[in-house]
Write a structure and sequence with these properties.
Helix content is 47%, strand content 13%. By secondary structure, the chain is α+β, with helices and mostly antiparallel strands. The strands form two sheets. It has a six-stranded antiparallel sheet, with helices on both faces. A hairpin with an 8-residue loop joins strand 5 and strand 6. Helix 1 crosses helix 5, helix 7 packs across helix 9 and helix 9 runs antiparallel to helix 12. The longest helix is centred in the middle third of the chain and has 35 residues. The protein is globular and about 70 Å long.
């Protein structure tokens, strides 16, 4: 199943990667400045905007799969187009081109800086290149919701090609009936909401594919996650990929599958159809169906303006919510997954802000502020306990990485981190203390 990853969305976690377009305005991602790199990995050529026309009629086998998907998913086809078979390298180039068109480069860069500042990826890791390489190694096919086209890789076995086509056809049905392209369009500051919808998208496709290719098989979300993570770890690129990226890429499938299966238990596919009319608004709702049914909203977290930083002239590179899913993925890198899930379950709302300092060197230009609100003080204490176990003190530093400082104030946890070799805890802690009146309001 992992090989059917849909990299045009790159939703890692769905909260880590997003697609779409955005304008630059205060508090929103900025366009890259002159000299700043885009997300295109080295050695990837541009792809012509005109896609090949799917002139070939459906083969009898493909027609049967179309019928099976429509029957299993209980949705009819409005149109049917044969998939286009392309090489792995061509698919990779198309994916990069699609993402460049739809995703602000500042967003990917900011997410990479956040992971680097939290010591979750290496100091020299390029986030976009890491993700694209992992996608190239594991990709089997994808559905481009912007052009209503399905693509299959030409090196698949017959069984894999059939399973991949089944999965992507579910996405095609979603697009025809529920406007997948519109629902997955990037909106500034809405990455957690987008991750929740992406989970619904992938969870539905995963559930329907299993129903068709392995009828009568009962697969738990935990077993699905183990299979995905094992597949990633054993893949060509997976073994060298930071674990946080592996966990993020699997999260949408696992959390979404659990969500969809729970809705189906309550009302079949008709209940899933209704979920498309009112999708989960946060990954908290995706993870906890009862909170989705109550439409429990996220708690607001105020934006800290760049002008509040007294240690230099900063501007906001990106700001959005990580969500419960994103918090859990981060905590998983520090403690056992079950402990991380329990701690993250108290999430009420959050905001991460990545600042960039004018005039600073590339290795020390970014400052990451992560503000978290929890449902109760006890929930905040639980996450504080994870941070204490991980860092021992209220601030930790590494000579070649920089420093991470954190505080818990009542139901708030605030983390300030900076990838800046030689940065001392005293300087970062002083900045965090200065921000106290702004982050607890």
């Amino acid at each position: 199943m992992w090989s059917r990853l849909r990299p045009p969305l790159l939703a890692i976690a769905s909260c880590l990667f997003v697609s779409g377009c955005a304008s630059s305005s205060p508090g929103e991602p900025e366009a890259p400045r002159r000299g700043e790199r885009t997300t295109r990995p080295a050695g990837v050529a541009s792809v012509a905007a005109t896609l090949p026309s799917p002139n070939s009629p459906l083969t009898p086998r493909q027609a049967r799969i179309f019928d099976q998907v429509a029957s299993a998913r209980q949705l009819g086809w409005k149109s049917r187009q044969a998939p286009t078979v392309i090489s792995r390298e061509e698919a990779y180039a198309r994916i990069v081109a699609l993402n460049e068109k739809s995703m602000p480069s500042a967003v990917m860069r900011a997410q990479g800086e956040m992971l680097r500042a939290l010591w979750l990826i290496g100091p020299e890791d390029d986030l976009a290149e890491r993700v694209y390489r992992l996608a190239r190694a594991n990709l089997a096919g994808f559905y481009d919701q912007h052009t209503d086209r399905m693509f299959l890789i030409d090196d698949l076995t017959d069984v894999m090609a059939q399973e991949t086509l089944t999965h992507e056809l579910v996405h095609a049905l979603q697009d025809q009936h529920f406007d997948l392209a519109g629902r997955l369009r990037y909106r500034p500051g809405q990455s957690d909401s987008l991750s929740a919808v992406h989970g619904l998208c992938e969870g539905e496709a995963t559930a329907a594919t299993f129903e068709i290719t392995a009828p009568g098989t009962s697969l738990s979300p935990s077993v699905l996650r183990l299979a995905l993570m094992a597949s990633l770890a054993l893949s060509e690129e997976g073994a060298s990929t930071p674990r946080v990226l592996q966990a993020g890429l699997a999260a949408s499938y696992v959390d979404g599958y659990r969500f969809v299966q729970e809705l189906r238990r309550r009302g079949g596919w008709a209940r899933v159809d209704r979920a498309w009319q009112q999708p989960p608004q946060t990954t908290e709702q995706l993870i906890h169906v009862e909170k989705y049914l109550r439409r429990e909203p996220a708690l607001e977290v105020a934006l800290v303006a760049a002008s509040a930083m007294s240690s230099g002239r900063f501007r906001v590179l990106d700001t959005a919510a990580m969500g419960e899913q994103g918090l859990r993925i981060v905590l998983e890198q520090w403690v056992h997954r079950e402990e991380a899930a329990r701690a993250a379950a108290g999430w009420g709302g959050d905001r991460y802000t990545v600042f960039v300092q004018d005039g600073a060197t590339a290795k020390s230009a970014h400052l990451v502020l992560w503000q978290l609100r929890f449902d109760t003080v006890r929930d905040a204490e639980e996450v504080g306990g994870v941070l204490t176990k991980t860092f021992s003190k209220l601030c930790a530093e590494k000579p070649k990485r920089g420093a991470i400082a954190w505080r818990r104030w009542a139901d708030r946890v605030v983390i300030l981190a900076r990838h800046s070799p030689g940065l001392r805890c005293s300087a970062l802690s002083a900045t965090l203390n200065e921000l106290y009146p702004l982050v607890v309001r």
